Amino acid sequence: MIELRDLTKTYENVVAVDGLTVDIRPGVVTGFLGPNGSGKSTTMRMILGLDQPTKGSATINGMKYHDLKFPLREVGALIDAKALHPGRSARNHLLALAASNNIPTKRVDEVLDIVGLSKVAKKRAGNFSLGMGQRLGIAAALLGDPGVLLFDEPVNGLDPEGIRWVREFFRGLASEGRTVFVSSHLMSEMALTADDVIVIGRGKLIRQGKISDLTENALGTVLVRSPQVADLEAALRRAGYGVTTDNESTLTVSGATSEQVGEVAHASSVVLHELTPQRASLEDVFMELTADSVEYSGAQHQSGAEQ
Ligand SMILES: Nc1ncnc2c1ncn2[C@@H]1O[C@H](COP(=O)(O)OP(=O)(O)O)[C@@H](O)[C@H]1O
Ligand SMILES: [Mg+2]
What is the mean pLDDT of residues 260-269? Predict the structure, then answer.
């Protein structure tokens, strides 16, 4: 369990994280979503004790990171896949980390195997592809067999195969009862990975909940096909719904559920040939939720993406 309480970080003139209060529960994958520059990396860095909060707190299983005796056994993280000694082999990199946390050598070989790097364990990590670097970072996160795991934009730059692997791997970790907290600026990626989502914009909490609720609550449009389109359009407008005509036989109705459209049609004795709710796509929902919080969208893309 990760608990954030009024977590706030201010840099000179930017409020990077603004009063975040959320619980990230075990046993599920929690997606941490927000546009670039919204404060995801800063939040994760504060959870990991790499940045000091200006106000509020972040705890892991009730403890601040710095109070954990063997941090790697409680929490593992992949924050920056490039943060390794390029001249060291993958195995030596992990051995150094393990030694500092009283983790046996046997575990190093175990995690190399788990992430599929056993065969290249003796190769210089500096020559690794991005995907291999991510796997090594994940191996490091797993070293202490921690119950809490944080991954900051782990699929950035991965190929589709790597993305699928990561996704299934995270789901597996959650199903073992671990807390898995994964950030992304792509809603579509989270839709396939996360059970819960926390959406932020400009450091503030915008929405928290099950990913399924997020889309269900977003009222989409309803596609209607009828041989009496003109009558139906008039009736729907009288009922106060937004209508656009697609062609001679179909309408798109906004602001109404399919039930409401069906009832209006029935009340005006209009025959329907089709009545289909058009679920808003996750990306639509995300754009709508965060629209107000995307500032300087051009510049933020560059500054936030790598953190
Ligand atoms: N060390 C820093 N000094 C000053 N501003 C920073 C620093 N780190 C992040 N920021 C700013 O804080 C905001 C949030 O950044 P970040 O946490 O990296 O967002 P995200 O990970 O969601 O892209 C941005 O406006 C960013 O420019
Ligand atoms: Mg970031």
Answer: 96
